[in-house]
Amino acid sequence: MTDQHTTLQFALDAEYAAVYSYGLIAAYANTDRARLVAEFAAAHRARRDATIELLEADGTTPTAPSAAYNPPAPVDDPIPAAHLAVSVESDCAAAWYAVVENATDESVRATGTEALTETAIRRARWQAILGANPVTVAFPGRA
């Protein structure tokens, strides 16, 4: 079993990558999706900041973000940008699932559940944009 601090740091790392990746997604997404991309990027920034505060409140110094993140595939038009968004949301779901699974504090588990739910909804929205069927899975974040 992984400890709560480790999984929170893993979730923070996923949020750092999401914030970075949404900058790339914004550059290549369809212009009619600009509001959606901005909303989702803001949600990840807020979750990143809240996770930093959660770690600091518990006496843990969060690690800094990486200087850059490599997408799993080249992003050069709207379709790969949407696929990157699905990948980002999947990674965040896995990280927050681990927080829920390993939380020893009720408030951390509640935060993880909320974050997992939010990222699963965002992932489903991107899957719908891509025309996937079904748009979600039974247990988002679970391997």
UniProtKB/TrEMBL annotation:
It comes from the Bacteria. Residues 8-142 form the DUF4439 domain. Gene3D superfamilies: 1.20.1260.10. SUPFAM superfamilies: Ferritin-like. InterPro entries: DUF4439, Ferritin-like, Ferritin-like_SF. It holds the Pfam family DUF4439. This is Ferritin-like domain-containing protein. It comes from Nocardia lasii. The lineage of its organism: Bacteria, Bacillati, Actinomycetota, Actinomycetes, Mycobacteriales.
